From TrEMBL:
Residues 100-387 form the Penicillin-binding protein transpeptidase domain. Residues 1-28 form the signal peptide. GO terms for cellular component: plasma membrane. Pfam families: Transpeptidase (PF00905). GO terms for biological process: cell wall organization. This is Penicillin-binding protein transpeptidase domain-containing protein. The keyword Signal applies. Keywords: Signal. It comes from Arenicella chitinivorans. PANTHER family: PEPTIDOGLYCAN D,D-TRANSPEPTIDASE, PEPTIDOGLYCAN D,D-TRANSPEPTIDASE MRDA. GO terms for molecular function: penicillin binding; peptidoglycan L,D-transpeptidase activity.
Amino acid sequence: MTLFQTVKPAALTIFTAVSLSICGSVSAESGRSPAPAALTKLSVAKTITEHARKSRFPTKLQFEDVNGATQTGYVKYTFDESVHAEMADVYLRYQPDYACFVAIDVETGAILNLTSFIKSDEKWDNLVMRADYPAASVFKMVTAAAGIDLGKVSPESVIPFNGKSTTLYKSQVLRHKTTKWTRTPTFKESFAKSVNPVFARLGIDKIGAANLRSYAERFGFGAPLNSDFMLPVSQLGLSMEDKWEVAEAASGFTRDITLSPIHAAQMAATIANNGQLVTPYMVDSVVNGDGIVLYQADTAEQQSTQVVKPSTAKALRSLMNATTRIGSARKSFQGLNRYKVYHDMQIGGKTGSLTGESPRGRHDWFVGYAEKDGRQVAYASLIINKEKWYVRSAYVARQFIYHYFTEQMQAKAKEGAMQTAVAE
């Protein structure tokens, strides 16, 4: 059994108190310490990725600077260590065969949590850093975004279907006929309950292959992540040259569309951020031994790309919220009113389930967001079970939300108490 240890907090701050004015050699010409060559995001990414794929996040690393020279840097990561400890406890308690979890601050893109768990002694690279998991019904987020953004469907639209909601047969999609057994849910209900035939018909009849592919690319499929670490690309592995492949893609009923947990969390963060792209990053800064900053994360670039209209993002959040109230994640989120931390909180998500091969087993996704008092966080929870179910991915997400926002409430209460004390 292995647990992904993100970072040691003490190592993060050891160099922050060093006085820049008294450290380092002095230039004869200026009387000031010469500034070291800066590090680029690419040089940071190359170094960080090498270790992250092995589930290692050391705070002292060697980087190549812009001149090709080697610089020793001390890394401050964005991780929330207390939340990581809570997530590790959840996995140790329920013992799934494989599991991983990612959480992102929606406003900045900072990765707050990366946890990976393997029950056995099998040797795998860091599960969080992989991108070969079937996206399954998580891809319905893309289909819904395309349909709403193009004006082809609204949350209250009705697309009828016959048969089971979990199946996908050509008779349900290509040869649909309205009968006395036909069901007529709203699109919001179809999203919440992940109705495959509805999304297949939406993809074929209203969106089309070109638009579906275009929106998948907007959400990052087939493109590298421009961040301070390198991530394998999520693949849209269908040509969609015939209607049935469009149906499979639109409903997520295929293993040919793959997704990484980090990318999944990015998709949810973008929806929570009113449709503006959120780029995850894990390095806050890198300083040298003199405390001089070699690299600093730039969050200003976050608000640059509009993936979908703000109105579309708002509608998507209403669909995702319905998933936790009346849909496929309802059981995992029952009874929230008993806990103060959930009061006035908005929670949304999308489930997905499909058998995959790497690792082999039933892949269970829950991807979504939570917001309270202006604080927004997005997450992706993935559980892979070989045979027996130990815990649902949505319940793991619920545990994260509880611990994270409890921590935020406690910090806010502590800050208020300190301000009161100062005022007195």
